[in-house]
From TrEMBL, chain A:
InterPro entries: Trp_synth_b_CS, Trp_synth_beta, Trp_synth_beta/beta-like, TrpB-like_PALP, TrpB-like_PALP_sf. Tetramer of two alpha and two beta chains. It comes from the Bacteria. GO terms for molecular function: tryptophan synthase activity. This is Tryptophan synthase beta chain. The keyword Amino-acid biosynthesis applies. The gene is trpB.
From TrEMBL, chain B:
The keyword Cytoplasm does not apply. One of its GO terms (molecular function) is tryptophan synthase activity. This is Tryptophan synthase alpha chain. NCBIfam families: trpA.
Length: 400, 266
């Protein structure tokens, strides 16, 4: 990395990103979180750990993922050159595998015998089930009933990979409730079980660990940009639910002041409360799932229901580092509505022959609009966080 | 000296132990919660924990979680709960403490929460998601207001850390009996008595045990080693029936249930 920004020297030892982050969890979990913090610190100093992860990235995941010039999409938008960081080409079809392999290696180091995970769109569930199958670790995945309905192909994949999928029937029966249930399981099994959290959310050290494992996206993009474009991109765009693909994409660019970073949240049906899942755009600082960050909450601190066409973005909170970047003014956050995301999906499918995940379609839709405001000699990179096979049936259902 | 300090001082002098029931505010409504609190007091319970419903409880099992969901379905607000407690606290002998997520306290405003709770006659708060590392500021606010911040130790807490928590906690120390979520259990961990005994030898702070306790046998086993016992899900499960059965019957059953526990404590 050419420059190291003070904005990259977070979190501190307490897991704080400025005022955000920290640990707001029951006391029962602190020993496991301390153990994970210590083991991760040791792993970072262990060349064998990084070598094993690098080998898995190269030979199991298929990294580096390509940086692809979307020529016809660029012609359609009549502005900046649009490039795609193809995380959809990773093994299991999304960026999620980067984090699950890293955390599965940590699970082995900690000698834990079982893994639990939560999933919204199912991509993290599939990636966790895959990593666990690779290492031979029993795996239970919590998933909201509504998401099980929306993401049947991924549910089937998890089962084929040997994972047990436990439906969650409480609350809104989506990702937020799946996280609650996974935390409850962990409370009762913490001595033997590692919780592979799927995004840059949750108590310290999860936001840092997940960001670090996902930063391979931004590091590769940086190198590829210098090689292919001869310079860094002018703008980088990624979708933000919990925010793991965006954190991994943005973090290596945070010190590069010439690179504009834009996160795109789920604007849902409208800006009215309950119609979207955009805590950075419309929420306020509060506590959810173990950390202090922007959340969708009412005047009493109760978490609000949220909506997104994309199961992976249908979450009322966001990673604390995004809150930090927002308040520091380093990253701009905006929202893109369901209908726009569908238009982004269609555009990429029809112009480039790529079916993007509905999550990534939010970033594509925004990038198309934004590229049109930029000059033809400028470049914009979109993190194409996952592929859209899982969403094809739901899109067909929505369109009747 | 707070009302809770006075209470434990008296209990120790008389060689007695505390029974602390837990009820969820607003399940099925605030009127019934007030009635249950009065009934628990009439039966001789020592202190009452009132759970302020939270949309995303992590430490709670299905019984208490469901009671929170029912209460929140009626759009119950913190100010309404404090207004109810303000009325009932002056009618009962037992001190009242709240079990409340820090998500709620943060949003409400920590200073305002302590001031309003105190004005409602609440003596302290148990904040299950506020770890000792994060508690400094709120702890100072509580101390300045002579409001107890009751902290938790669990079976997974290393001993050195348990002592740090005991030094920070006021009123009493909440010892969580099991590594898990709230809920009734038939078996308690075999090393529970020994672990609480060790902690009791290290601190003068009263120690009360909660999570999993529901039977007179549990009370008999744990009373000698603790200063008090906390019973939650077994009461909340009975109170839940007030939504579908005559309230007088449910109230009587709750009262009779705590009486069996009080008898085991005597």
């Amino acid at each position: 990395m050419s420059t190291v920004s003070p904005l990259q020297s977070v979190p501190d030892a307490a897991g704080r990103f400025g005022s955000f982050g920290g640990r707001y969890v029951p006391e029962t979990l602190t020993r496991a979180l301390d153990e994970l913090t210590a083991e991760y610190a040791k792993a970072q100093q262990d060349p064998a750990f990084q070598a094993e992860l690098d080998d898995l990235f190269k030979n199991f995941v298929g990294r580096p993922s390509p940086l692809y010039f979307a020529k016809r999409l660029t012609q359609r938008c009549k502005g900046a050159q649009i490039w795609l960081k193809r995380e959809d080409l990773n093994h299991t079809g999304a960026h999620k595998i980067n984090n699950t392999l890293g955390q599965a290696l940590l699970t082995m180091r900690m000698k834990k015998k079982r893994v639990i995970a939560e999933t919204g769109a199912g991509q993290h569930g599939v990636a966790t089930a895959t990593a666990c199958a690779h290492f031979g670790i029993p795996c239970v995945v919590y998933m909201g009933e509504e998401d099980i309905r929306r993401q049947a192909p991924n549910v089937n994949s998890m089962k084929l990979l040997g994972a047990e999928v436990r439906p969650v029937t409480s609350g809104s029966r989506t990702l937020r409730d799946a996280i609650n249930e996974a935390m409850r399981d962990w409370m009762s099994s913490v001595d033997t079980t590692h919780y592979i959290l799927g995004s840059v959310v949750g108590p310290h050290p999860f936001p840092r660990i997940v960001r670090d494992f996902q930063s391979v996206i931004g590091r590769e993009t940086r190198v590829q940009s210098l090689e292919r474009l001869g310079r860094l991109p002018d703008c980088v765009v990624a979708c933000v639910g919990g925010g793991s693909n965006a954190a991994g994409m943005f973090y290596p660019f945070v010190g590069d002041s010439t690179v504009k970073l834009i996160g795109v949240e789920a604007g849902g049906r409208s800006s009215r409360p309950g119609d979207h899942a955009s805590p950075l755009s419309y929420g306020s600082p509060g506590i959810l799932h173990g950390s202090f960050s922007y959340v969708m909450q009412d005047e009493d601190g109760q978490t609000c229901d949220v909506h997104s066409i994309s199961a992976g973005l249908d979450y009322p909170g966001v990673g604390p580092e995004h809150s930090y970047w927002k308040d520091a003014g380093r990253v701009t956050y905006t929202a893109c509505e369901d209908d726009d995301a569908l238009r982004g999906f269609d555009a990429l499918a029809q112009c480039e022959g790529i079916l993007p995940a509905l999550e990534s379609s939010h970033a594509i839709a925004f990038a198309m609009k934004h590229a049109a405001t930029m000059k033809p000699d400028q470049t914009l990179v979109v993190c194409l966080s996952g592929r859209g096979d899982k969403d094809a049936a739901e899109i067909a259902r929505l369109r009747g | 000296m707070t009302k809770i300090d006075d209470l434990f001082s008296q209990l120790r002098t008389s060689g007695k132990k505390a029974l602390m029931p837990f009820v969820t505010a607003g399940d099925p409504d605030l009127q019934f919660t007030a009635d249950v609190i009065r009934e628990l007091d009439r039966r001789g319970c020592t202190m009452c924990e009132v759970g302020i419903p939270y949309s995303d409880p992590i430490a709670d099992g299905p019984v208490i979680q469901a009671s929170y969901t029912r209460a929140l379905a009626h759009k119950i607000k913190v100010q309404q709960i404090l207004a109810m407690l303000g009325k009932v606290s002056s009618e009962v002998k037992m001190p009242i403490v709240t079990m409340v997520s820090f998500a709620i306290i943060h949003r409400y405003g920590p200073e305002k929460f302590v001031a309003d709770a105190k004005a409602a006659g609440v003596c302290g708060a148990i904040v299950p998601d506020l770890l000792v590392e994060e508690a400094d500021r709120f702890s100072a606010i509580c101390k300045a207001a002579d409001f107890n911040l009751i902290e938790l130790v669990t079976p997974t807490t290393p001993r050195e850390r348990a002592l740090r928590i005991a030094n920070s906690s006021t009123g009493f120390l909440y010892y969580v009996s099991i590594a898990g979520i709230t809920g009734e259990r038939t078996q308690l961990p075999p090393d529970l008595v020994e672990n609480v005994g060790w902690l009791k030898s290290q601190t003068k702070l009263p120690i009360c045990i909660g999570f999993g306790i529901s039977q007179p046998e549990h009370v008999k086993l744990l009373a000698p080693v603790s200063d008090g016992l906390i019973v939650g899900s077994a009461i909340v499960r009975r109170v839940a029936e007030a939504a579908t059965r005559p309230r007088g019957e449910v109230l009587k059953e709750v009262g009779e249930y705590v009486s069996t526990l009080l008898a085991a404590l005597a």
